[in-house]
Amino acid sequence: MRTDSKNKPTGQTWQAVALTLFPEMFPGSLGQSLAGQALQKAKWALQTVDIRGFAQDKHRTVDDSPCGGGAGMVMRADVLDLAIQDTQHSTGGLPLVYMTPRGRPLTQSRVKELAEGPGVAVLCGRYEGVDQRVLEAHNVEEISIGDYVLSGGEVAALVLFDACVRLLPGVMGSNASGDEESFEGGLLEYPLYTRPVEWQGRTVPDVLRSGHHGNIRAWRREQAEAITRERRPDLWKAYEDKRAAKNDKN
Ligand code: SAM
Hints:
- It is a single chain.
- This protein is of the alpha/beta class.
- It has 2 domains: 2-165, 3-Layer(aba) Sandwich (Alpha/beta knot), CATH 3.40.1280.10; 180-249, Trp Operon Repressor, Chain A.
- The chain contains 7 helices and 10 strands.
- Helix 3 crosses helix 5 (153-165).
- The model has no long low-confidence stretch (mean pLDDT 94).
């Protein structure tokens, strides 16, 4: 069998599909905690497609040496094409993504868009990557999870699935917790505290114990702004530009 459905999609269930040489790497961490419970309850569905099942020769070859020379191996376009066609046929045509360090950086807004759609099919690279022609032929979106190189795309696919799944209705414990997280409103999250109020000589800031909701909101915004300005000048600039544009309008 070429595909293994851990939880067959029904109706509008959000579908995560991983095209991979290592199907056993799924669901991995997504079999645990809230995502795992949601998978059990069929709030989302996960399917793995074993790329090797689409190899055409008796050795089940999926890769070859790079044209033009160089180190490593490249995943073959003909094998990947068959795997992609089969997946698109059986899933009804999901957005197709290739995880790669040279892709556009993954953002919370792209995650939201994908979570609002029918799901996502993710091509997990191995070796040096995949033949360019198959990416062009299927108009594949290329996404990176950061400026570092992993040994394969499976962990990156799990990152993308995780970020999407937690936004699906009924998956997170409290929907409200999503509204004030990092990136919502363009800022990183403010510092969090819980009991005990005193711990190793460190005290929870007075304002958070004041019960004054206006002051708490203002303090959290100040903190979020300071952290964003210090750690992420790129986000801070976008935030300031947006604020300036809003002021110009009013
Ligand atoms: N030769 C590639 C390059 O220089 O960009 C790196 C290949 S890497 C060893 C093998 C696979 O891991 C890639 O095809 C990709 O699927 C995945 N991968 C590695 N780093 C990644 C990242 N930062 N984001 C997303 N996928 C990544």
